[in-house]
Amino acid sequence: MLPVRDLIGQVDVVLLTLDSLRHDVALAALDAGETPHLAALLPGGRWEERHTPASFTYAAHHAFLSGFLPTPARPGRHPRLFAAAFEGSRSTGGLTFTFEEATLPAALAARGYRTVCVGGAGFFNGQTALGAALPALFHEAHWSPAMGVKNPGSAAVQTRVAAERLRALPEKVFLLLNVSATHTPTHFYLPGARRDSPSSQRAALRTLDAALPPLLAALQARGDTLLVVCADHGTCFGEDGYWGHRLAHPLVWTVPYAELLLRGQG
């Protein structure tokens, strides 16, 4: 586990959530060499298998932003990176960044960070009261239809906007980037496909990987970054008769995860 308690205030913090990305899809793409930029980030070159705290975007992100990131998919007591303080918590350790505020954005803002949300899925679009709830947790929030799930070029747009904000801000930054590309619909990433599938989600993941270099370059130009890359939940494509998420299926609860200290350059 990274010494997050000591890193806060010294590094940028980035949470990159690959919306709806299944663990098995992430592994297949990795093993086929289709995600070289992600592969270069992963500790040991592998995704870690974890269990998400919620089965759909809104609930999962609320949990993440209070310190409940996906839990290692193995028995045991697993200390968390971040934790909002509450009586009786048994998942904090000596390296955990524990805060009194209700959310991680509020905690980091209180410690001098500029908090930035680059949205993707509809829960970040700001177009309804519900769609504004998560963005309202941040100093600034960015979303446009070009960043949404219906644009096949969304990953490039999102990473470009995030990189622009990182280059513009002098203070330490907490960035949440919710990647929309891997969220349904994904069939249009696969020529000729008419229905979403693991293959079309894998094709969508390739576009995200290809869009990462400008974001990573912007981060490394600023210095060191505490980077968490994970799915918020998975999704079903007809397995056992299930489609979608917000349901209790292993393919929904099991997600790819990585945490690392991305070293700056220069």
UniProtKB/TrEMBL annotation:
Descriptive protein name: STM4013/SEN3800 family hydrolase
Family: Belongs to the sulfatase family.
Source organism: Deinococcus oregonensis
The keyword Hydrolase appears for this protein: yes
Keyword terms: Hydrolase
Domain of life: Bacteria
Stretches assigned to the Sulfatase N-terminal domain: 13-249
Signal peptide stretch: none
NCBIfam families for the chain: fam_STM4013
Gene Ontology molecular function terms on file: hydrolase activity
Pfam family, one: Sulfatase
